[in-house]
Amino acid sequence: MINHKTLIQDMSKTDFYPHSIQGSIQVLQTHISYIFLTGEYAYKLKKPVDMGFLDFSTLEKRRYYCQQELALNRPIAPEIYLDVLPITQEEETLELDGKGEIVDYVVKMRQFPQAALFSEMEKGGKLTESLLAQLGKRVAKFHQETKTNDYIGEFGQPEKIERAIENNYKQTEKYVGSVQDQKQFLETKAFTDRFFQDYNALLKKRVNDHFIRECHGDLHLKNICYWRDKIQLFDRIEFNEPFRFVDVMYDVAFTIMDLEFRKRQELATVFLNNYLEQTGDWEGVQLLPLYLTRQAYVRGKVNSLMLDDPNIAQEEKQKAQEKAKQYYHLAWQYTQPQQGELWMMSGLSGSGKTTVAREIAKQKRAIHLRSDAVRKHLAGIDPEAVGNEDIYRPEMTEKTYERLLEIGSLLASKGWNVILDAKYDRQLMREAVITEAKRHHLSLQIIYCTAPMEILLDRVAKRQGDISDATPNLLAQQQANAEPFTETEEAYVTTIDTRKSIEAQF
């Protein structure tokens, strides 16, 4: 049996590889693997460890999980994942893909620049709202295409999720009092225990509605890159089915949590709202507090486990300890109760409602509900497809506004800030929102967006790449049908002239 330290030393040498090397070998390390960067290619070597939630302790298991990693990641990142290769030994010489005795296996990948990682782009200030909007749509498409079946669905049963979260607490009990505060630990655990009681029916409904799918399982910024002019998801979890057979909101929560850990709340909001607009899964937002807490806690656990690894330098352990504390605290923060607020947008097409709503959403960590998206999901068509006249008939418009308020009221009553983005040009529609806000004791603002008619016409005519189907010839009719605010409504209204700076008026 080969000594693992010897193997790492040999793989760190340029002459180990049967191809040219650019510079020296760079070695990256996680709690479960080593990655050797050679220039054109990267090689991942799994550590011979058994951590309970994963077992790479034998050669056969490492071979199996290398092949699993390739099979699971090639469909979502075919340009990155290339092959599984054996490491062989002949006498005292170790060789990559040689003819001697097989002593280990590696996953061979195409190396991309580390600067292409979303985590590195965020550090360098290059992670833009546009990229996060694209990521929301990319993850939505991935979730819509990835498989589900009865076997996968069973992993979404509440008792199985609860058991997995309980295991996280058991595996980290020894760090209570050193890496995390006991009061914080107990309150975090009490929240998740209570969540399973309160949301048992919804969790079961998610199974029946096929939201438990073969997801990514570890969708944080270090596992997302922008390379070759496209967003690529990689390092999908191969070693543990319960980590991969999960609710789609589990994946979404990992990305949101990582962005919020990095104090990029506004980017997290852009990502979430673009994902929801594409999938229409607004009810799933109710589960985010559970999964946000879980993901932050797991990152705390991962960093805690590094403290027990003798192969990790003391300086790295100190960094891991500090990160673990921060993650555990974030997990606790997600358990704290929030008071939801409502915003109702109002104005003609082209008045800038959606632009203003997006700004409010970023500031307030709000769910942005667009009537255009709600209408198309009700009609069963892709949000980016052009709708026919049937979906704009009065009865469909009524259903759209009812659904908009239903979702908005549900989420706001659960503590989320929600923006209802529609024309809201009729008193009856506005009155329904005011009544619902009063019923749930929710703060409400009406944001009325205005601009001269010639500007509205120009904006609508030039609109591209948006899900709205409004055309300039509709504006005169909208203007004629719009009903003025009543005296009661005026108390809620803030008027925004969208020719001017939004920040100065709001």
Automatic annotation (TrEMBL):
The keyword Nucleotide-binding applies. Its EC number is 2.7.1.12. The keyword ATP-binding applies. Pathway: Carbohydrate acid metabolism. GO terms for biological process: carbohydrate metabolic process. It comes from the Bacteria. It holds the Pfam family AAA_33. SUPFAM superfamilies: P-loop containing nucleoside triphosphate hydrolases, Protein kinase-like (PK-like). Keywords: ATP-binding, Kinase, Nucleotide-binding, Transferase. It catalyses: D-gluconate + ATP = 6-phospho-D-gluconate + ADP + H(+). It is an enzyme of class 2 (transferase). GO terms for molecular function: ATP binding; gluconokinase activity. PANTHER family: GLUCONOKINASE (PTHR43883:SF1), SLR0207 PROTEIN (PTHR43883). Belongs to the gluconokinase GntK/GntV family. This is gluconokinase. It comes from Dactylococcopsis salina (strain PCC 8305) (Myxobactron salinum).
